[in-house]
Amino acid sequence: CPGNGICKCRVCECFPNFTGSACDCSLDTTPCMASNGQICNGRGTCECGTCNCTDPKFQGPTCEMCQTCLGVCAEHKDCVQCRAFDKGEKKETCSQECMHFNMTRVESRDKLPQPGQPDPLSHCKEKDVDDCWFYFTYSVNSNGEANVHVVE
After folding, report:
1. What is the Cα–Cα distance from 52 to 63, expressed in whole angstroms?
2. Residues in a beta bridge with 50
3. pLDDT higher than threshold 80 for residue 111
4. Taking the domains of the chain in order of start, what are their residue ranges?
5. pLDDT interval class at 55 (50, 70, 90)
6. Which of 32, 101, 126, 145 is deepest in the core (most CB within 10 A)?
């Protein structure tokens, strides 16, 4: 019972937080905790202290790695474009699809929020439908509200 229980009559009696016939399965979920505070990033189950990713796109020790997923910038590019500049692929559906973030316009790139604030921040540089660059930041605060700052 590798130190996780007591052997009585050839059967392991496990200490708290261990299970299995040989007490080799830890019930501690700490190693499964993703950076967002969810067990296995909400994309898997924690079994014996190890994530079993149930969403096939996600892998890694806490199911946070996704090779095929769009980054934050690419994911929100179309919505930022239609909200800020009234153009792009989602122009017609903007009011239905793109109201999930608060948007603030700033005059120049140096007025964008800078790293060092309490909320995780992504700096984005994307091309619009006219092949021009536009710049924005995307962050999510502790209340789960998404905030976008976009350069006019």
Report:
1. 8
2. 47
3. yes
4. 5-66, 71-151
5. confident
6. 32
Residue-wise pLDDT for 67-86, tens only, equals 667 778 888 999 999 999 99
Q: Which burial class, exposed, middle or buried, applies to 124 when counting CB atoms under 10 A from its CB (0-12, 13-18, 19+)?
A: buried
Overall pTM surpassing 0.70 (yes/no): no
Which residue type occupies 98?
A: C
59 exposure class (CB count in 10 Å sphere: 0-12, 13-18, 19+): middle
Give the span between the Cα atoms of 88 and 94, in whole angstroms. Answer: 9
71-151: CATH topology is: Hormone receptor fold (4.10.1240)
Superfamily for domain range 5-66: Laminin (2.10.25.10)
3-class DSSP state for residue 77?
helix
The lowest-confidence range among 37-41, 48-52, 69-73, 90-94 is 69-73
